[in-house]
TrEMBL record:
<comment type="function">
    <text>Dirigent proteins impart stereoselectivity on the phenoxy radical-coupling reaction, yielding optically active lignans from two molecules of coniferyl alcohol in the biosynthesis of lignans, flavonolignans, and alkaloids and thus plays a central role in plant secondary metabolism.</text>
</comment>
<dbReference type="InterPro" id="IPR004265">
    <property type="entry name" value="Dirigent"/>
</dbReference>
<feature type="signal peptide">
    <location>
        <begin position="1"/>
        <end position="26"/>
    </location>
</feature>
<dbReference type="Pfam" id="PF03018">
    <property type="entry name" value="Dirigent"/>
</dbReference>
<keyword id="KW-0732">Signal</keyword>
<keyword id="KW-0052">Apoplast</keyword>
<dbReference type="GO" id="GO:0048046">
    <property type="term" value="C:apoplast"/>
</dbReference>
<protein>
    <recommendedName>
        <fullName>Dirigent protein</fullName>
    </recommendedName>
</protein>
<comment type="similarity">
    <text>Belongs to the plant dirigent protein family.</text>
</comment>
<dbReference type="GO" id="GO:0009699">
    <property type="term" value="P:phenylpropanoid biosynthetic process"/>
</dbReference>
<keyword id="KW-0964">Secreted</keyword>
<dbReference type="InterPro" id="IPR044859">
    <property type="entry name" value="Allene_oxi_cyc_Dirigent"/>
</dbReference>
<comment type="subunit">
    <text>Homodimer.</text>
</comment>
Length: 176
């Protein structure tokens, strides 16, 4: 009697664990990877600085700077040779007073491939000097309706002279 009761409890606990570890019924799980290109320099720049703090004391971290982006997203690391799959449209704000820490607020708007016409909303902290930065995916449209998840960003290429950068975003989602 006691042992069958405890195995019932164990089964219930396992069910609860299984439920929290996998997507809700009917939800899909998607992993994708894109390369995000911040083109700061040159005639085809995709970054516009629209504001900065009035004091000069904050220059080491750029605290208070606001930049609007329309960055290409490609399926491979090379902007010239890889396929364009979307655009990262939004902004980032230098939100760290003493450390380089960006607040990212952007939509990944897909324009090609399986996700053409769909988008993901990413909002979170980006301490850009760390090797891996994790940001939440807070929603989505199209095939990504009701999306929740996270992405991990890793800088793959950076030109310290121009500020141009290529960052790999690995995205893990649950959505309808
Ligand atoms: C800028 O974009 C135009 C139009 O897409 C292209 O013809 C030109 O080669 C680009 N220039 C650079 C420096 O990438
Ligand atoms: C800049 O920082 C220094 C040291 O913290 C401080 O003494 C000075 O008043 C600050 N200047 C301005 C313009 O905020
Ligand atoms: C991208 O590919 C082009 C053409 O092969 C090459 O010239 C360029 O150096 C590559 N860029 C990067 C950042 O690797
Ligand atoms: C992406 O979707 C748009 C709008 O539906 C369409 O005009 C375009 O041709 C599509 N692009 C590709 C590469 O399928
Ligand atoms: C960085 O950009 C500068 C200016 O365009 C260029 O001379 C230099 O070769 C670039 N460095 C790298 C590592 O791509």
């Amino acid at each position: 009697m006691a042992s069958s009761a405890s195995s019932c409890v164990l089964a219930a606990v396992l069910l609860v664990l299984a439920a929290t570890a996998s997507p809700a019924a009917g939800q899909k799980e998607t992993r994708l990877r894109v390369f995000w290109h911040d083109v700061v320099s040159g005639p085809n720049s995709t970054v516009a600085q629209v504001a900065q703090a009035p004091t000069s004391n904050t220059s080491s971290t750029g605290f208070g700077t606001v930049l609007v982006i329309d960055d290409p997203l490609t399926d491979g690391p090379n902007l010239t040779t890889s396929r364009l799959v979307g655009r990262a449209q939004g902004m980032y704000v230098a939100a760290g007073k003493d450390t380089l820490s960006l607040m990212m607020a952007m939509n990944f708007v897909f324009v090609d491939g399986d996700y053409n016409g769909s988008s993901l909303a990413i909002f979170g902290p980006n301490p850009a000097e760390r090797a891996v930065r994790e940001m939440p995916v807070v929603g989505g449209t199209g095939v990504f309706r009701f999306a929740r998840g996270y992405c991990q960003a890793r800088t793959r290429w950076f030109n310290a002279t121009t500020g141009d950068a290529t960052v790999e975003y690995k995205i893990h989602l649950r959505h309808d």
